[in-house]
Design brief:
Belongs to the NadD family. It catalyses: nicotinate beta-D-ribonucleotide + ATP + H(+) = deamido-NAD(+) + diphosphate. This protein is of the alpha/beta class and 195 residues long. The protein has one domain: 3-Layer(aba) Sandwich (Rossmann fold), CATH 3.40.50.620. Helix 4 packs parallel to helix 6. It starts with a strand and ends in an 8-residue tail after the last helix.
């Protein structure tokens, strides 16, 4: 049997401690050998939403992933550009890691959107879905998906809040790893005015 590999996609705008805790809890509770973060170039369900350029989100995700040797970052969606479809990325990872068992990680809110994704039935055949839970939340998944819940430590941090704190000139230490905070500061991200 090959490795158990977690896939954790998202906009990561910016990647924060909540993402890190979900990843660490998935490693522990799902007995993953490694976890791959996949920053999206453009999320189809977030069209029209302003987003930080993909190269910055990729670099910040790489800074977050440096926290654990079992983490890596796949920049293929950013390299492809355009809309990012998970099924395309999973097919590529399946081809690159034919012996691995792929587990797609997500929160319950994301799991609820699966019917809107491109080719959800095909995706369900390629991966197992693991849904991070914070209690007795019901899991509503499309037919064909194999879902495994796993517990996640509760943390009330959002990327929206972090962007707002930066725009207001407030500290984000403790909200993101120091390497991510340093990157945001060095590149002047999330400021509302130019200096």
């Amino acid at each position: 049997m090959g490795q158990r590999v977690g896939i954790f996609g998202g906009t990561f705008d910016p990647p924060h401690v909540g993402h890190l805790l979900l990843a660490l809890d998935a490693l522990d509770h799902l007995a993953l050998d490694r976890l791959i973060f996949v920053p999206a170039a453009r999320q189809p369900l977030k069209q029209g939403v302003a987003m930080t350029p993909a190269e910055h989100r990729l670099a910040m995700t790489e800074a977050l992933a440096a926290a654990d040797f079992r983490f890596s970052v796949d920049g293929s969606e950013v390299a492809r550009g355009g809309l990012s479809y998970t099924v395309d990325t999973v097919r590529a990872l399946k081809a690159a890691l034919p012996d691995a068992e792929l587990i797609l990680l997500m929160g319950a809110d994301t799991a609820a959107t699966l019917p809107q994704w491109r080719e959800p039935e095909a995706l369900g055949l390629l991966v197992q879905v693991a849904v991070a839970g914070r209690g007795a939340e019901p899991m509503q998944l499309p037919a064909g998906f194999r879902a495994q819940p796993f517990p996640m430590r509760r943390v009330d941090i959002s990327a929206t809040e972090i962007r707002a704190r930066v725009a207001e000139g407030r500290s984000i230490r403790g909200f993101v790893p120091d390497a991510v905070a340093d990157y945001i500061a060095a590149h002047g991200l999330y400021r509302t005015t130019t200096e």
